[in-house]
């Protein structure tokens, strides 16, 4: 079942944020989108999921820069973005009540393709390894050892576990990892699909420690990252991603509600292919 059959997607995100006080970054994003973007059909319009209010804030930090893995990166806090309607971090509800994957037994894991805590579903799709390095901008981009990331994304069909019809009782494609002494952590997952109205993306929240990653109240940053267009076009030619190819043809970074005002700190580097799988890497600056 395709996600645009049962979740509210772009319009839900827009309606949620337009009901909140606008930050400077959000206001710029909406101006760039323009009124022409508003009629875009959401992913599922009248689906069973509710309108979930997610607040965001914006702050930035700069430093001198850091060399990581042979590549010089700006020492800058990654932009704050909306968590969207489907965070599963205890900040909103699904059809069964408060949705908090962070409270589930087994949610701290590297491989997020299967559900945990008694649910038995497994997400299918192109293998994807996500490698993040967390750096502390407040300390000159030294590795943020011991910080934690909660990461989630949609299925290849565009649905979100814990929320979308048919997979409300699943919790796959969600997981938590703690950064090692070099700030590194990784997830094994599947390449996400593209649902109508959004450029493909992965959500994540950063927590100062694993101990504080029990609910959204402990997070210090919420953001998203995306993929190069060449990678997206290649991936969506694979079996199972037919609807994603059609949806991708109708969106662009410039029209996207999150990436329209820039994505230089949110564009993952990619290696691999659609047959053997992809590896994506991204340096994530936070202020601890």
Give the arrangement of secondary structure elements.
Elements: H1 9-18, H2 24-33, E1 66-68, E2 71-73, E3 89-94, E4 97-100, E5 127-136, E6 142-143, E7 148-152, E8 174-178, E9 184-190, E10 202-207, E11 221-225, H3 229-235, H4 242-248, E12 269-273, E13 277-286
Parallel strand pairs: 5-13
Antiparallel strand pairs: 1-2, 3-4, 5-6, 5-9, 7-8, 7-10, 10-11, 12-13
Key attributes of the depicted protein:
288 residues; alpha+beta; five-stranded mixed β-sheet; four-stranded antiparallel β-sheet; disordered N terminus
Structure characterization notes:
The protein is of the alpha+beta class and 288 residues long. The chain contains 4 helices and 13 strands. Strands 5, 6, 9, 12 and 13 form a 5-stranded mixed sheet that branches. A 4-stranded antiparallel sheet has the order 8-7-10-11, with no helix packed on it. The chain has a two-stranded antiparallel sheet with strand order 1-2. The longest helix is centred in the first third of the chain and has 10 residues, at 9-18. The protein is globular, with a radius of gyration of 18 Å. The model is unreliable at 1-72 (pLDDT under 50).
Order of helices and strands: HHEEEEEEEEEEEHHEE
Mean pLDDT: 82
Helix content: 10-25%
Unreliable stretches, pLDDT < 50, 5 or more residues?
1-72
Count of helical segments? 4
How far apart, in Å, are the first and last alpha carbons?
41 Å
Spatial extent as radius of gyration: 18 Å
Major sheet? 5 strands, mixed
Structural class assignment? alpha+beta
How large is the share of residues in beta strands?
A: 15-25%
Instruction: Characterize the overall form.
Output: globular
> Which oligomerization state do the chains in this entry correspond to?
single chain
Number-wise, the strands total: 13
